[in-house]
């Protein structure tokens, strides 16, 4: 697979990935190497990765507990302390080996330690391959509020090795699939149509599907690296999806949702809103709702859940001047950003989801 060239960094795939990494290590005079992992990737991915490294650098492994609940500034502080104690300096390289939590948090740690050291992302989940590791966004949650603290700063490279997907559960694979569905809905109708019958997909072709998804996200980000305009398209399904994810994360009576599970709900809700703002046809909306519900289990959202979910919308990062801004789809494969939506229509979308 050919490498994809992003804004000032390459994205390498499979057989090319480790050759590119080892060449980078030879060509740059790093003082030492830190590999950031969570407990899952330490167990399942690190043993595969380490033998592929060709370097005489001192290697230190920095591990933190898995889970979105640990994607916070407290974890960063602990890692900054470890880096300091083990002699990290301005010429240190940090490799983030893991899913979206690891790449988001590890990129933020690297971007801020000593005002920034080089880092490389090696995503190990489908979600992080097609979304989190691409585009230069790094950050952590503030309490239950997603990605409130962070920076846009690009890695030296991203390495995508799809063999790591063999370690994932079906639920984690479905979580990543949500972002691939989104890429089709906002940008490429033909790509969306590939997912209408999952049974017909030959998952030997998964590499090509991942490649196209990365390509779509990169094409959008290249046009608008700092999310002033078209990059907001990538937030389709995320305005309500993030609020739902945050609410279920903080509520002890709810089962925590995976990111993609929440975004799948958000895409149905925001497609309903698109329909009622005359951006989608009934046929298109029916196709979207049917396809997504065929992949993801229904999540029970009670009447008394909706108001606190809506209250979380005020913290959405796209908001401007106190107004909630949605990215909606204008037909399948097209996007319309900076759309304001009245509360009544949002409430109707929840009722429709539950119907």
Automatic annotation (TrEMBL):
Residues 63-174 form the 3-dehydroquinate synthase N-terminal domain. It comes from Flavobacterium frigoritolerans. Gene3D superfamilies: 3.40.50.1970, Dehydroquinate synthase-like - alpha domain (1.20.1090.10). It is an enzyme of class 4 (lyase). GO terms for biological process: aromatic amino acid family biosynthetic process; chorismate biosynthetic process. The keyword Magnesium does not apply. It comes from the Bacteria. One of its GO terms (molecular function) is metal ion binding. GO terms for cellular component: cytoplasm. Its cofactor is NAD(+); Zn(2+); Co(2+). Residues 176-319 form the 3-dehydroquinate synthase C-terminal domain. It holds the Pfam family DHQ_synthase. This is 3-dehydroquinate synthase. NCBIfam families: aroB (TIGR01357).
